[in-house]
């Protein structure tokens, strides 16, 4: 009789403790999983670098091992509501402090994988268009223009986020309230300080998204704070500034990429 009571007691304890144990595991796992996923992503990129070039081809060692890019400059021809506005030219740091991110933008601008993945390019993509992207004097403008692309990368697997943790660590710069990565911002004579950036922290990181940030033209209280959490990979050619102003100071509609590519 005593043995039967002991068995019943054990069953009752198990029924009480098992749900609690299951709830504990379910609660803790989400906190562990992201770290494990990030470790796996880093290992996958390391494996990719050992067998792939950064320019999208699959033979030999990675071209980006020493930070060297396949091109120094990229361009985007812009139209608004069917009317061509002009060309934006960006000069990239080469060697680059964030070579994989930068090479991804280069290859998407070239459309080098378009035959394999029809979404891996920028032609036809629209810049975000909202009060925050219109310089109308109402105080809502945020001194930048974002283009998300189609979410497909042209370096590595097209659906895999790009990460460069060691490169980010080596190229970290402080700004008021936080930090940014890649090229360190500096004022240059005859240059309005318009930077080409990619998100490396937070939403959109490691994807086809990039931003054009008007650091030098922004009010003093903004400055390089506009670069926070982003990776800086290049600067706008000063002669393209009028095209950017036309994009920012119009109320017709979203600027659209008509043609994009690289300059030799």
How would you describe this protein?
The protein is α+β, with helices and mostly antiparallel strands and 264 residues long. It has a single domain (63-263), classed as Beta Barrel (Cyclophilin), CATH 2.40.100.10. Helix content is 28%, strand content 22%. The protein contains four helices and nine strands; from the N terminus they run αββαβαβββββαβ. The chain has helices at residues 2-49, 99-110, 165-170, 241-248, and strands at residues 73-80, 83-92, 144-147, 172-175, 178-182, 194-199, 210-214, 230-236, 256-263. Strands 1, 2, 3, 4, 5, 6, 7, 8 and 9 form a nine-stranded mixed sheet that branches. The longest helix is centred in the first third of the chain and has 48 residues, at 2-49. The termini are far apart.
Topology:
Layout: H1 2-49, E1 73-80, E2 83-92, H2 99-110, E3 144-147, H3 165-170, E4 172-175, E5 178-182, E6 194-199, E7 210-214, E8 230-236, H4 241-248, E9 256-263
Parallel strand pairs: 5-8
Antiparallel strand pairs: 1-2, 1-9, 2-8, 3-7, 4-5, 6-7, 6-8
The secondary-structure class comes to alpha+beta
Question: CATH-wise, what's the superfamily?
Answer: Cyclophilin-like
Radius of gyration: 24 Å
Q: Please report which band the strand proportion falls in: under 5%, 5-15%, 15-25%, 25-35%, 35-45% or over 45%.
A: 15-25%
SSE pattern = HEEHEHEEEEEHE
Number of strands: 9
Assign an overall shape: globular
The termini sit apart by 91 Å
Ranges where pLDDT stays below 50 over 5 or more residues in a row are 1-32, 44-64
CATH overall fold name: Cyclophilin
Mean pLDDT: 83
Number of alpha- plus pi-helical segments: 4
What does the largest sheet look like? 9 strands, mixed
């Amino acid at each position: 009789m005593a043995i039967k009571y002991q068995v019943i007691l054990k069953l009752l304890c198990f029924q009480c403790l098992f749900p609690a144990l299951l709830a504990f595991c379910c609660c803790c796992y989400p906190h562990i999983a992201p770290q494990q996923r990030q470790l796996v992503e880093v290992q996958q990129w390391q494996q990719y670098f050992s067998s792939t070039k950064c320019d999208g081809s699959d033979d030999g060692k990675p071209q980006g091992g020493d930070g060297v890019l396949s091109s120094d400059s990229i361009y985007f021809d812009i139209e608004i509501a069917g009317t061509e506005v002009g060309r934006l030219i960006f000069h990239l740091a080469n060697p680059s402090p964030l070579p994989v991110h930068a090479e991804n933008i280069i290859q998407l601008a070239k459309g080098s994988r378009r035959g394999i993945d029809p979404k891996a390019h920028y032609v036809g993509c629209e810049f975000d268009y909202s009060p925050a992207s219109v310089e109308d004097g109402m105080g809502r403008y945020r001194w930048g223009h974002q283009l998300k692309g189609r979410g497909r990368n042209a370096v590595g697997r097209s659906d895999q986020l790009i990460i460069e943790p060691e490169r980010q660590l080596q190229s970290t710069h402080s700004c008021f309230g936080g930090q940014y990565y890649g090229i360190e911002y500096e004022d240059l004579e005859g240059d309005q300080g318009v930077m080409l950036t990619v998100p490396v922290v937070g939403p959109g990181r490691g994807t086809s998204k990039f931003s054009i940030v008007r650091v030098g033209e922004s009010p003093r209280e903004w400055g390089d704070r506009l670069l926070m959490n982003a990776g800086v990979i290049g600067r706008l050619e000063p002669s393209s500034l009028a095209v950017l102003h036309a994009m920012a100071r119009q109320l017709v509609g979203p600027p659209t990429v008509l043609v994009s590519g690289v300059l030799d």
